[in-house]
Amino acid sequence: MVKTADSLGTILSIEVKSTRLTSYENNLRKFIYEYFLEQDILLRPLGNIIYIVPPYVITEMELQKIYKAIESFLNLLKGR
Questions:
Q1: Which residues contact 54 (CB under 8 A, 6 or more apart)?
Q2: Cβ–Cβ contacts within 10 Å for residue 48, how many?
Q3: Secondary structure letter of residue 48 according to DSSP
Q4: Does the pLDDT value for residue 80 go beyond 80?
Q5: pLDDT reported for residue 1
Q6: CA torsion angle for 20, 38, 1, 64 (degrees, to 10)?
Q7: Distance of CA 70 to the CA centre of its chain
Q8: Directed axis angle between helix 28-38 and helix 60-78, to 10°?
Q9: How many angstroms separate the CA atoms of 19 and 26, rounded?
Q10: Which residues pair with 50 in a beta bridge?
Q11: In 1-80, which ranges are continuous DSSP H helix?
Q12: Total-model pTM
């Protein structure tokens, strides 16, 4: 499910395990993008990497929404 995870403050990078190599063209990109868009979160995945750099003006509630969506997404992948 998760290959690596790194963070620095609110910046977060999670590399999702994939049968393909980690790259911008990884087939998980579309699935990740569509999932978060359905959650009203505009996220630009870098292939199979979930990468967030929230703005300084983000509220705690907005940030928690993003973190919960990431957790739900990873649980969804676990069930696949």
A1: 10, 11, 62, 63, 66
A2: 24
A3: T
A4: no
A5: 87
A6: 140
A7: 6
A8: 130
A9: 9
A10: 14
A11: 28-38, 60-78
A12: 0.89
| Tens-place pLDDT, residues 3-15 | 999 999 999 999 9
Q: How far apart are the first and last CA of the chain?
A: 10
Q: Say whether 26 sits in a helix, a strand or coil.
A: coil
The average confidence (pLDDT) of the chain is 93
Domains and CATH numbers, the chain: 2-78 (3.90.1150.10)
Q: Give the CA-trace dihedral at 53, 31, 71, 62, to 10 degrees.
A: 40
- Give 22's contacts (C-beta < 8 A, 6+ positions apart): 3, 15, 47, 48, 49
Longest Cα–Cα distance in the chain: 37
> Which residue in the block uniquely carries the two structure tokens 């959650």?
39
Q: Which residue type occupies 45?
A: P
